[in-house]
């Protein structure tokens, strides 16, 4: 049996500082170029969003994050840079270019955020919430 058509929806996160229009055009060229077995391939209906990366961290925020982490976890703060498209963060960064951002979450062996059986490790989530409260308190003192 041959399928009369197949539709595929791709979701691609692009790195920060990459033009979404140029990225979409590159994907279009790649997908439509020389399809196998005489297939007809067309690319359209792209919902484009730009990637985002955080501005350099202000010294007060770095110190506040480290102090909060030491207080509630007994260890210095850790950072993980991960390029990707977070449309809401791009919009916030564009609207508030001098703002500092603290984007965090609870991941690890006791948590499965964004998975089909999403759950959080409550003790870790509690300590993280206390850290965020400490950082907000320090921000209020700035």
Describe the structure.
With 142 residues, the protein is an all-alpha fold. It has two domains: 41 residues, no CATH class; 82 residues. It has four helices and no strands. α2 packs antiparallel against α4.
Question: Layout of SSEs?
Answer:
Layout: H1 20-32, H2 59-73, H3 87-95, H4 122-140
Structure described in brief:
By secondary structure, the protein is mainly alpha-helical. The chain has helices spanning 20-32, 59-73, 87-95, 122-140. The model has no long low-confidence stretch (mean pLDDT 87).
What percentage of residues falls in helices of 4 or more residues?
25-40%
Radius of gyration: 21 Å
Q: Give the uncertain stretches in residue-range form.
A: none
How many distinct folded domains?
Answer: 2
> Count the strands?
0
| Count of runs of 4 or more consecutive helical residues | 4
Reported for the largest beta sheet, the result is: none
Content-based structural category: mainly alpha
Q: Give the helices and strands as they follow along the chain.
A: HHHH
| Measured distance between first and last alpha carbons | 68 Å
Report the β-strand fraction as a percent range.
under 5%
Shape: elongated
Report the average pLDDT across residues: 87
């Amino acid at each position: 049996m041959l399928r009369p058509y197949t539709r595929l929806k791709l979701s691609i996160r692009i790195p920060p500082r990459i033009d979404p229009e140029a990225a979409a055009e590159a994907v279009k060229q790649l997908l439509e170029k020389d399809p196998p077995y005489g297939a007809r391939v067309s690319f359209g209906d792209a919902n484009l969003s730009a990637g985002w990366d955080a501005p350099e961290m202000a010294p007060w925020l770095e110190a506040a994050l480290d102090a909060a982490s030491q207080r509630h976890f007994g260890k210095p703060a850790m950072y993980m840079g991960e390029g990707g498209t977070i449309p809401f963060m791009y919009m916030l960064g564009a609207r508030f270019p001098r703002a500092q951002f603290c984007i965090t979450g609870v991941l690890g062996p006791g948590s499965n955020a964004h998975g089909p059986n999403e759950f959080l490790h409550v003790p870790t989530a509690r300590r993280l919430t206390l850290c965020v409260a400490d950082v907000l308190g320090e921000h209020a003192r700035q």
